[in-house]
Amino acid sequence: MKKWYASSSPLSSRYLASKALSFSLTTTTTTTTTATTTRPFPNYSPKKPTIRDSELVHHISTSIKQRRREPVRRVLKPFESKFRSDHLIWVLTNIRNDFNLVLNFFDWARLRKEPSVEARCIVIHISAALRHPKTARDLIRGFWANAGGLDIGNSFRHFVEQLVYTYKDWGSDPLVFDIVFQVLVEVGLFVEAKKLFDKMLNYGVVMSVASCNYLLSRLSNNADRIDMAIEVFGEFPRSGVCWNTESYNIMMLAFCKVENVDKARSFLLEMESRGCVPDVVSYSIVIDGLCRVGELQRALELVREMGSKGLKSNPYTYNSIIQLLCNNGKVVEAERVLKEMMNHSVVPDEVIYTTLVNGFYKVGNLSAAFRLYNEMLSRELRPDAITYTALIRGLCQNGKIDEAEKCFHEMLSKGLVADEVTYTVLIDGYCTMGRMKDAFSLHNQMVQLGLTPNIVTYTTLVDGLCKQGEVETANELLHEMCAKGLQLNIFTYNSLINGLCKVGNTKQAVKLMEDMEVAGIHPDAFSYTTLMDVYCKSGEMARANEVLREMLDKGIQPTIVTFNVLMNGFCALGMLEDGNKLLSWMLDKGFKPNATTYNALIKQCCIRSNMKMTSEIYKQMCSQGVPPDSNTYNILIKGHCKARNMKEASYLHKETVEKGFRLSATTYNALIKGLFKRKRVAEARKLFEEMRTEGMTADKEIYDLFLDLNFSEGDMGITLELCDEAIEKCLMAKKSNEHS
Questions:
Q1: pTM of the complete model
Q2: Phi, psi for residue 164 in degrees, rounded to 5
């Protein structure tokens, strides 16, 4: 037999968990077995009252019955001096069928002196028998609250002995044992709960499945106690407990929490063979578990299996799948799932819309995020603080800080309470835009509201100050953090290192990394990459390489950003051979380059007008399974235009458009000039109009070309329009730049 341990961890508050773990005292029943080996409950034989005691008991009983509408304290005032603890039980005998009278009298008696355990157990039995389980529960809980500082083992034994001793004459309702069992589980006395379970078997009483489910739920709520839950699950049926669908749901949820989804899936199969019918919660638990470990296909198969059994998916089922797709950036597919669930008459809730809003903002598609937000409102679903925080974060990350501020105030106007996370998100937005005054003003506002800024809030402020070059102020803020007892983390140190590097104080940055080590916080890949970036930008490639070697020696895995910093350093200095060697080394060591890695090499080859090598690197990039990005196409098109390879440039332009990438203004300029030189005027004109539609500014040389062209064609209207546009966008912009 494994050991039992106490727990005080709360029940899960998640939507699905609350359904899987719910139980109700009002429907709780306890099974009484009829086995011949069980012992009978003992007869109750209390102390007999003397004649004088009997007279006093009669007077008290009669008085409180006849004057029941008056306060008990007033009625019993004449008897206070003569009343002893023994009288309590004798009076209870006379009024046992009047619950309100019993409770009022008991409360009066315990104000004078703590009643005996026997008396408490009698009132517990009366409460259970007269269908007042809440009162019985409160009395049991009160006993354990008072016994907190005593020997739990002896208190438990004495309490159960008195409960069993008084059972036969004072209630004979087995519900009382369920209530005691549940209270023991609730206060974390699992050992005592198990002892009670075993003891009651001797009297032929088996705890209800609802009570046993409560024990399962409390044990399985903590990953360290799942073994105990498994033990209970296997042991209790041998004592007569018949597990139900809820029992299996609790166990499956427990396994999913520790990512043992295969075990949860096996329980789903097992419950059917044991005569328990899986419900929508059963399937949703396993589907959610599969989604949490990234098993989308298996989750979808289970959804189909669920449908084939006539079970209708609920919003929670779909939300698990939508959450997984959004986490993987597949927001379009996630929205498709939303449409599918609505086609199956499943009404989406606030959680699903919030998941999608969050997903679209993460991929930078703010228009879709707000479209879903408006759709949410049209369905009369009320966005919560999490929804608004997702919108505010998305707006901030896309530089739309004024709209984020408006969204924040709208949230507050609707009576929603912003927490530390929401405030920190907006503070981060202000810091990113360099609006440090607004950031600190919002910080002060949250403090005035009683919210405590956490390490993330302060790190955000430190990072903002460092980006503004206010490293000294950031340092002062660090000291303030320490004074408040906040433990600096790797992100805080990295922000300061980044700030020191940006203001050129590399020596202090290196010193800070040494201080980190002393403080027990080890620099990570970001710390070293930040330092490497400074050396690369100052042309000190030997030092940058030394930092990389130090990283590797300490067992710190470089990120792709680390290698891209080095690659940019080599290419910026024209060290193309070193760049190619770095790429080969990365591939040999199993580090997969990304588009940024190749873009640096491609750009350097284009600068050298070595289009043969450019094409070779581009082909290698594609063969390695690295998809080109917008920057790749812009570099290639400009390179081929420079080399007068307009056929290749036009082909790449077509491919860029097909893949949904945008051309930069400089790429448009290069293409238009190249096409003009090749007398491909119609194509050049089309690109020029496209460029204007996109709101981009062409070179003055291109405006001159089209002014001459339209004038020669006699189109004075467009000529004058282009003339005004050229003055506004080229000449005025040039003067503005000169003055600034």
A1: 0.60
A2: -65, -40
